[in-house]
Amino acid sequence: MEPQEEVGAAGGGGAGLLELELPRRGAGEAGAVAAELEARRSGETRRLVLSRRLSGPLPAGLARWFPALEVLDVSGTGLAALGAELLELPRLRTLLAKNNRLGGPGALPKGLGQAPLARSLRVLNLSGNRFAELPAALLGLRGLQSLSLGGNRLHSIPPEIQALSSLEFLYLGGNFITSIPPELANLPSLSYLVLSDNKIQSIPPQLAQLHSLRSLSLHNNLLTYLPREILNLVHLEELSLRGNPLVVRFVRDLTYNPPSLLELAGRTMKTRNIPYASSDLPGNLVRYLSLASNCPNPKCGGVYFDSCVRQIKFVDFCGKYRLPLMHYLCSPECSSPCSSASQSSTSQSESDSEDEAIVAAHRMQKVLLG
Asked: In the UniProt record, does the keyword RNA-binding occur (predicted)?
């Protein structure tokens, strides 16, 4: 899934659109390309498509010949560097540079984040190149709304990606990414997130803070469960999970480190609602008490801090699919069928699943597992 590329005000083929077939690779090609561009210069052209091969970066003079340029497509031209001329295009809104050789040192011009382009550019597509890491220069493009880096060689997503606060579409499929930074949740406008065909093993629960998210593509990764918080993505319409080793049976992980004396005291204060003021306790204990998490078992009503039991629980979606969601319980008794308190836990768990299924059916219109 790639976004519809912006065509600016070109109107799809009238005045303002220039598609140039470049000469084939050969001696003097760079000069021939520049000469032909200069010969077809226009102050009204807003969309320029260059095809065939380029032997060097963007020709010097491009900004003078096409000062109104808003959309530039240099996909499949063999570019290894975009060049400094890119910085001279202050009105550029869309840059398509797919399927090239970009990725080495100097692939992007220095000063990209400080150029006028950093404020005007809205769509950037660098898919099908050779980037091994997300270029730091891109983090200065604060007006960027759509970023595509699919089919590169990325192994990670830098936490600094949160600087792209206007981002609505992020495509990072077909890389070698192994984890998702929690900072990705700090993109308030993100609506479409594509992380398919990577090596991701888990999803940080912080992604539930992406309240604008409508589509989440995670197919063909290494996921075995999803965080329970994913149910909080109230606007999510499409969740793609096919091709993941999602667990196929109900699994409980009861590996449990007993709570410390500090945690036991904190649990007691919270569950018994013992009043306290900031003047009653040291500052570090007040902060510690503020970190209490509620146990999701409605029969329990307890809290936990650092010591909890992880439990994978299946929830039906749309009456068809069962997704494994991660729960964090305050103690093994909350999930163990051996205790008297838990004899009703099984039926309660089934009831919880039904309740969550009802909620999920409204929130997840499309779950793709097969």
From this structure: no
- Using CA atoms, how far apart are residues 114 and 167, in angstroms rounded to an integer? 18
pTM score: 0.70
- The tens digit of pLDDT for each residue in 299-322 reads 788 888 888 776 666 665 544 455
**Residue 238, helix vs strand vs coil:** strand
Alpha carbon distance 119, 130 (integer Å): 26
8 Å CB contact between 256 and 309 = yes
Q: Is 344 within 8 Å of 299 (Cβ atoms)?
A: yes
Q: Are 93 and 71 in contact (CB under 8 A)?
A: yes
Q: Would you kindly state where each structural domain of the chain is located, as residue ranges?
A: 17-240, 252-364
Q: Which residue has the tokens 């050969």?
A: 26
Question: How close are the terminal C-alpha atoms of the chain, in Å?
Answer: 17
pLDDT in tens, 265-294: 988 988 889 998 888 889 888 888 888 888
Decide yes or no: CATH 3.80.10.10 for domain 17-240.
Answer: yes
What is the edge-to-edge ordering of all strands in the sheet holding 47-50?
17-20, 47-50, 71-73, 94-96, 123-125, 146-148, 169-171, 192-194, 215-217, 238-240, 366-368
The 8-class DSSP code of residue 126 comes to: -
Cα-flanking dihedrals φ and ψ of residue 174, to 5°? 75, 35
Distances from the Cα of 276 to the Cαs of 55, 255, 261, 266, 293, in angstroms? 72, 33, 19, 12, 18
